[in-house]
Every structure is written in C-alpha cells, then in structure tokens.
Specification:
Strand content: 15-25%
Distance between the termini: 41 Å
Helix content: 40-55%
Shape: globular
Order of helices and strands: HHEHHEEEHEHEHEHEHHEEEHEH
Largest sheet: 8 strands, parallel, barrel
Strand order of the largest sheet: 1-2-5-6-7-8-9-12
Radius of gyration: 19 Å
Number of strands: 12
Length: 303
C-alpha cells in the first residue's frame, strides 16, 4: 500500500476517534485517564457480537467510551489473524486509536488431549501473534466440561508449567483464568487448589475473575490474593445480578466493588479488564457504556 495513503488513513482514523471521544465523554474522563495508575481495560468477549459485525468501527466506539486497553479472544493461528485481520494490520488499527491489547484468551482447551507437540505448535503461533500486536500475556481461559475432574486438573497443571516455560522463554507472561468449575468440591479436593499448588508461580501467573470467585469460591478475592502474593497479575472485573446471580452491568449487581477495590492488595496487578459475558440490559454496546460510566465515576479512583 502506498505509504502516503497509509499515513492519511491512520491520521483520519486517529482524528475521527478523538473527535468521537470528545463528543461522547465528559471532560473529566480525559483527566481520569492520565491520573489512574492502570488503564481502564475491556475484555472484548463482552462485545463479541459487535466485533464479529464490524471490528474496526466497534473498537472506535470502545475507545470513545474511555477504554484504553483490552484483552482479546479468538485467534486464527494458521492464518495469523485477529478478527479477520492480519496481526500487523490489527496492530495498525489499535495504534491509530491509541488503544492497546495486553492479553489474549486462546483456544488451548481444544488441544487438551492431543499430543503436546500440537499444543506447542499452536502456542508458538500465539506467541508470534502476541508479539506482533504488542500483547504482554497469553492466557489459558477455559477447560471443556469433560476434563473437569481431578485427573484433568492435574494434567492441566502439568501442561500449564510446560507452556509457561515456553511462553516465558518467548519473552511474554503466561496466566490461567478461572471460572466457577475449578472450585467444585471433589471429595475434599478442588481443581483450583491443584492449579495453585502444582504450578510454578514463576512460570504460571493467575488472572482472577472476581465475579466467579465471589460466585463459587469459599475464599474472597482479597483472601486469595493475600494467600498467593505475586501471582494475580490480571483481574476480570464484572458484577453479579442481585437475584439471578448472572452477569450484569457494573453497579447494578451485588458485588461491593467499592469496598473490595479500596482494600485489596494491588502490588502484583498489572492489568484489569471490565467484562460482562451476557445478560445485557439492552445490548452489549450499551452495557459497556453503562459499565464504563459507573466505573469511572465510582471505582477508577481505586486503580
């Protein structure tokens, strides 16, 4: 592509994004971005419908709402594409918007019972893609139901250690993301304790989903972080419906994030991402707008 046209496109995208930001955000939002220690992040799975329809326009709107950082999902390792775009093209898009991607969720569970060489091959594709887009972490996000037993968790821990070593040697961080099933009791044992105790803290960091910890763990987020210093480098911040215990917009739910975030240990924290997996009051884009507004007004001062 002609370099003059490329620069013109980038300038147009950047200017249009900033104009849109100015139109949608209060003046205080800009000063909030500069005062906060951490960038306000979004897990893009929250708006997977909008990302599938028009990822570039969606990211412009995300940026305009005040989100500065993100965690992505979905990666075509064979073709090296994110949301249908080659990694370098995707990096140009986020750079134009002054937006970052610091972590990614990848489909490692599909390789769970395959030879480790196949998992390693995909992992190396993920490492390459992460470097191209400037992401700092690769995260194992989910485990298929058929493997959620104690043998499966022990096998998972072995894989996590091997993967963490490979990722670390590749110059990136590696983490595991929890849901609810890790806290299920298996005759006095549970999968989360196995992951905590059987993985190397230097190789395998943890991404805490605060909603699922509040939903299913006997320990609070504050307790888990205090008991495992240095491990929780990323958080997923999402709220819980007061009646159904499903996901909901920030500020509409039962989790007292003012109390939690004002008292919790943050020394290991590097990134956090607001998330809502579903149960939108109107639609996903309205939900992230409402969550951003509440977060900036009530919670961002703690981060």
């Amino acid at each position: 592509m002609n370099s003059l046209k490329t620069n013109s496109r980038r300038n147009f995208v950047k200017k249009s994004g900033l104009l849109l930001s100015a139109a949608m955000l209060p003046i205080s939002s800009f000063s909030m971005e500069s005062k906060s220690k951490f960038k306000m992040g979004l897990q893009l799975f929250t708006i997977r419908d909008a990302m599938a329809e028009d990822p570039i326009d969606t990211l412009k709107k995300v940026r305009a709402l005040g989100y500065e950082d993100s965690e992505l999902f979905g990666y075509d390792g064979e073709n090296g594409t994110y949301y249908g775009m080659k990694a370098k093209e995707f990096k140009n898009v986020i750079d134009d918007l002054d937006f970052t991607v610091t972590s990614g969720h990848y489909d490692f569970s599909s390789y769970f019972m395959k030879p480790f060489e196949e998992l390693q091959g995909y992992l190396e594709q993920c490492i390459e893609g992460s470097h191209l887009i400037g992401a700092k972490y690769i995260t194992w996000p989910w485990l298929a139901p058929e493997y959620r037993n104690m043998d499966g968790f022990k096998r998972l821990s072995e894989k996590l250690n091997k993967m963490g070593e490979i990722v670390n040697k590749g110059g990136l961080g590696f983490a595991y993301h929890n849901h609810d099933f890790e806290f299920t009791d298996h005759h006095g044992e549970n999968g989360y304790d196995t992951i905590l105790y059987d993985t190397d803290p230097e190789l395998v960091k943890l991404q805490m989903d605060m909603y699922w910890v509040e939903h299913s763990s006997k320990k609070s987020p504050k307790q888990l972080i205090a008991d495992n210093p240095g491990r929780y480098v990323m958080w997923h911040v999402k709220d819980m419906d007061k009646v159904t215990r499903d996901y909901t917009e920030m500020g509409n739910g039962s989790i007292d994030y003012v109390d939690m975030l004002s008292n919790i240990e943050k020394d290991a924290l590097q990134y956090y991402y607001i998330e809502q997996g579903g149960n939108y009051a109107v639609n996903s884009m309205k939900s992230i707008a409402d969550s951003a507004a509440y977060f900036k007004e009530n919670l961002q001062k703690y981060l």
